[in-house]
Amino acid sequence: LEMMHSVNLIHRDLKPSNVLFFVNGVFKITDLGLAVQAQPNLYHRVGTLGYQAPELLLHHNYGRPIDIY
Questions:
Q1: Which residues are designated catalytic?
Q2: d(CA 28, CA 1)
Q3: What is the pTM for the complete model shown?
Q4: Contact 21, 27 (CB under 8 A)
């Protein structure tokens, strides 16, 4: 996720079922189908409603905080 954010990409649907955990402690983020370049005028609500950040729902604010929430 940090690597994605470093190149200004946001996942937009990060939730437990999109993270794979392995026995050796490694984890991988999956389902990048909704990932996009973060843009200030990007107001499309996509992803799983129950996992969307308040910043997105209330203020249409896209960026790293919506993935971290």
A1: 13
A2: 9
A3: 0.58
A4: yes
